[in-house]
């Protein structure tokens, strides 16, 4: 799998995770009786932190795979 394909996969997966977080936030707001906008900023921050952590992890995995491939070729 090419690096571009992997990055696209991670981005797509991250988008799905953000959508899931938004749905959970809406259900939480409804269940505790507050306006969703009251918790929106917190939800965005958490979603961004999650996406960044996933991307950092995937970049580390890609770097390791590239290094391993370079070592194997030598």
- Determine the N-to-C terminus distance: 21 Å
Report the total helices: 2
Helix content: over 70%
Q: What is the strand tally?
A: 0
- How would you classify the helix and strand content by structural class? mainly alpha
User: Largest sheet, described in full?
Assistant: none
State the order of secondary-structure elements, H for helix, E for strand. HH
Total domain modules: 1
Question: What labels describe this entry?
Answer:
single chain, 74 residues, mainly alpha, 2 helices, rod-shaped
What does this entry look like structurally?
The chain is rod-shaped and about 60 Å long. It has one domain. The protein has two helices and no strands. It is mostly helical. Helices cover 92% and strands 0% of the residues. The chain starts with a helix and ends with a helix. The mean pLDDT is 77. Helix 1 packs antiparallel against helix 2.
Please provide a brief summary of the model.
By secondary structure, the protein is mainly alpha-helical. The chain has helices at residues 3-32, 36-73. Helices cover 92% and strands 0% of the residues.
Q: What layout of secondary structure does this protein have?
A:
Layout: H1 3-32, H2 36-73
Helix pairs in contact: 1-2
């Amino acid at each position: 799998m090419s690096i571009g394909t992997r990055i696209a996969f991670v981005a797509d997966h991250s988008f799905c995770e953000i959508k899931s977080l938004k749905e959970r936030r809406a259900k939480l707001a409804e269940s505790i009786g507050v306006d969703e906008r009251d918790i929106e900023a917190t939800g965005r921050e958490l979603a961004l932190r999650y996406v960044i952590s996933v991307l950092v992890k995937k970049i580390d995995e890609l770097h390791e795979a590239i290094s391993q491939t370079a070592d194997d070729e030598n």
